[in-house]
Each structure stands twice: as C-alpha cells, then as structure tokens.
Amino acid sequence: MSAVRVLVVDDSALMRRHLVQLLENEKGLEVQSARNGEEALTLVDRFDPHVVTLDVNMPQMDGITCLARIMVGSPRPVIMVSSITEAGAEATLQALSLGALDYVQKPGGTISLSLEQVAEELIRKIRVAAKSGRRGARRPLPTPAPAARLRAVRLAPPAPPAPAPAGASEGSGDPPGLVLVGVSTGGPLTLEQILPALPADLPWPVLVAQHMPRSFTGVFARRLDKLCALAVSEVATQTPIAPGNIYIARGDADMLVVRRAGRLCLAAVPASEAHSWHPSVTRLVESAAEQVAAERLVCVQLTGMGDDGAAAMAALKRQGARTIAQHEDSCAVFGMPHELIRCGGATAVLPTGAIPGQIARWLNPASLRRTG
Fold first, then answer.
1. Whole-angstrom distance, CA of residue 69 vs CA of residue 48
2. At what angle do helices 86-98 and 63-73 cross, to 10 degrees?
3. Which residues are designated catalytic?
4. Looking at per-residue confidence, does 279 or 372 come out higher?
5. Which residue, 284, 281, 359, 344, is CA-closest to 314?
6. What's the pTM?
C-alpha cells in the first residue's frame, strides 16, 4: 500500500519540526511542511497530499483563508491545529463550517512534552482522514433568518402534545418526548445543516452529544443559537428540559437525563472512564431510556468515528423508539451511523438534508398517536 502523504502547515519552525518528526516516525506516512498558507497552496499542487494539517494563525495567509482556497481549488481532508482559547475555538468552528474534516488542540507549554499527549489523537485522525478520501468543495450553508425573528414567527400555533403511553413515569411538566442526537467527526458542519432547519414549534426538545473539548462547546452553542429557530444552550449545570430548546452537552463531561423534584432535567457529570468518547452518546441515550418511555424517544446517529451510542440506540429501537442513521454519502466519517445500521438499529437511513423533515414528520401529533 502506498504511503499517506501529509502536509504540515505551521508558521512556527519549532512546531513544524516536532510535528514532522512525530509523523515521520509513523510507518506509512510521507511528510512535507510549509511555513504559511501561500507555501501550503503551492505544495498542495506539487506534493498532492492526502491530508493537510493546518495552523489557524499564520502570517501572509492565515489558515482560514488557506482552507477556503484549498476547498475551492483542490479539496481534500484538512485537520485544523487550533489553540484551546475561545478565539481559537471560534476560528476552528468557522474552519469546520468551511469544510475542514477535524481538528486537534495545539500543544502549549513545553512543546515536546505536550506533543506526546496529542500524538495518538493526531495520528489517528490523519489515518481516518486519509481513508475518507477527497471531498468536493462544500456548498455554502443557506443564510437563515435571524434566530430572534424565527422564534417570533410561527406558521401555525404549536400542536398539543399527544398523550403519554400507559406506564410511562412522566411528570406533568415533562416535555412530550425527547430527540437524542449523537455525533462526532464532521459534526459541527452537519449540525449547522440540520438544527437550523428544525421548525420553531418543534414539540420535543433536542439533546445533542457532540464529541468536543470543553473549550469549544460553549462557543459552538452560541454559534448555533444565532442560526436556529429553537434556543440553543450549553448544559453546564442542572437544567430543566423544556420544548423549544436544543441542549448541547458540555465538552469533556457527560450529559445525563435525570429526574429532580419530579421533573425531567439535564445534568452535566464528570466523564466516565468506562466510556471512550465524551460527551458520551451512550450515557445520554441510556439515561434517557431510564426516564422516558421508548415510544417517546427519537434517536439520531450522525457522522463520526467509532460506535458511541449505536448499541444503546439499537436497544431503544427494539423497545419502540424511532431512529435515524445518517447516510454514508453525506457523512464525513461513516463509523457511528454504520454501527447503528449494522446492528439493525436504524428505522431510517437518510442524507443530511432529509433528516430535519423526517424528525418534524415523526413528531406530528397524528403520527405520535398511531404509535403511542
């Protein structure tokens, strides 16, 4: 098998040297480097890398500009190397919206020691990116109406919730049901396509576990809140669950559905060592199943590597929940949806653009009464 060609782009000579040495020590990788965006564009044409790792802040041409040029002129998987600051998170999320496949946190402090901590993650993501193949330039997202206006305008009053099924232990103040979303690599762009397309009068709240570090999720929630008709917030403390909301799990923690004083709430709890990815999709889904009847749950498994949440969603489908797996053609990485499909856990397999409409149709009261 031919070597995977990797282009490392960073304005720091020390960082470039360490990254190149790190990757050259890995079998099957061929590495070149560039000092800035302009050099990177030249090497993209000449070296034709399978994967590019791209610094965000660089002189002459910054990483965002370089990324946009790559996606238009010669699209291929790009992994952003970003600082963990809020500004770094905002720039990285912008890069993911422009078509970057993934990101790693840029080492700080003693570079050689910090690199050792991120080396495994970086190499794993490079190999996943290389397998994902080249991608066409991403189409720009449609410009939504301002979220405040979307929330104020409804085509029709929200329909009353369907009655809860017999035996469901639900409080009088509970929402009629929950939409549970699991997502990882490629998730920010995918969520920016799905969540703004959900209607303002969606009767069930949406709970999202996106694998992401703590420094990113608050910025991501605020970004989504500007795009969506539903209110979007990061769950950092115990939070009552209410319709009209999208809840984003806090990074480097897990989000659980719990009952407090007879009411459904969300709790941000320390990440479980028994689970590999965080926020954990599996823990979110299993906790929801403990509190809400399966018929009152819709599970959505989106792009990402691994199998987080697949078994838990499949178990719920067997109990009466409805589930969606994102279609391979619209996934950045097909791992998580593929695992749901493989274990017979997908009610529907849909491309990104069809998912919001399917959720809205399933939550139509008439549809709920047929299966409730």
1. 14
2. 10
3. 184, 211, 308
4. 279
5. 344
6. 0.86
